Amino acid sequence: MPADFSRLLRLLYRGPRGAAPGVANPYRDEVPELDGRGAAGQRRRNLEAYLERVGSVRCLLVGEALGFRGGRFSGIAFTSERQLAGEDGRRLPWASAPPFAATSRKPALWLEPSGSVVWGALGGEPNGVLLWNAFPWHPYALRSPLSNRCPERSLWQANLHVLEELLAELGAVRVLAVGRTAQAALAELGVEAPGLRHPAHGGAALFREQLLSELRSCAILS
Q1: What is the edge-to-edge ordering of all strands in the sheet holding 174-178?
Q2: What CATH superfamily classification does 6-217 receive?
Q3: Once rounded to an integer, what is the mean pLDDT over residues 62-80?
């Protein structure tokens, strides 16, 4: 039976609990200098269409948080808007038709290196692997919205309800953590997930090797 993400999406779109300075909720917030008209609504459509494309989830890949080159403008973890709407060969096969679209005012669109590594390892298709983040919004350095910062422990701990809802809805699936923050967040919820090297800062080759090994072990890839 397909997962019902309706409650999850309501929690996600509402945004983080408590005081969260330096955090953008891309599913609700729009910055005129950065976002096109109706950007928040388009990012919700992108995410919801992506969830449909994933289909029956067999593996959950959890990262740290949305980045400004990726999910901040695409609405999807480990995915850039150029992969959804680009015309330079980087567009993913499953995003080749509406409703996927870019949302930023950047003419060339944003491209996230980590997203390219992740989708390259997946062969460009979801294959039942759902991409998500422990803190599913975009934390940035104060006064610098086009930057990334690691969410403080207190911040992601106060917002584990979204990840908890996702895990409850998915049930028994293989869970993998990308980076220490994701691994720590999952541990707080009682999930001991294998940790993969983050693809950024020279970790791409090791990440790819680890991910492919995990996916083969649970027969997602041959």
Answers
A1: 129-135, 59-65, 174-178, 195-196
A2: Uracil-DNA glycosylase-like domain (3.40.470.10)
A3: 98
